[in-house]
């Protein structure tokens, strides 16, 4: 009996904090790249278009595993507010739908997109559905984020803050509010750091 009670308590704590867990998907780093930065990965948008995360190089990124039927789903509204408030300052919010936790994102990409736009007016980038949990089919993006921070989501709406250099700064659990002081202070600090210099192109060979 005590072990069952302990397991139940741990389950509740995990759901509230967003710590633990994991996921998977058909993304990967760009050809020849080593996954030392989020900006070295490519994936697919919710609409099926290719998405190269290198397009966000030099910006601060908030990566969130989202779901449409979760108690935390109303966070979509604050994620959109966060995006509107900070996008001109250099923040990108990216949502990755995930059905890993409680089966709370069962819909198709089209259904997810329609729900997000109609219910919460979402305009920030949304990617195709992924698996975050470790094992076969885990998203390479989430595998990288988990390896870099030591944490994977254990519930929906886990949040990774990634610096301008593409390296994860911290993981925040489901209960951390997008518009709360904790996350916004961290975003402000990340935005205050200068973007790293773009890698210089190799010099063209001189003619003989």
Structural topology:
Elements: H1 2-17, E1 28-29, E2 41-44, E3 50-52, E4 60-66, H2 75-86, E5 91-97, H3 109-120, H4 140-149, E6 159-162, E7 168-172, H5 181-192
Parallel strand pairs: 4-5
Antiparallel strand pairs: 1-2, 2-3, 4-6, 6-7
Detailed description of the structure:
With 208 residues, this protein is an alpha+beta fold. It has one domain: Glutaredoxin (3-Layer(aba) Sandwich). Helix content is 30%, strand content 15%. A 4-stranded mixed beta sheet has the order 5-4-6-7, with helices on both faces. Strands 1-2-3 form a 3-stranded antiparallel beta sheet, with no helix packed on it. The relative contact order is 0.22. Mean pLDDT is 85; it is low at 1-28 and 30-34.
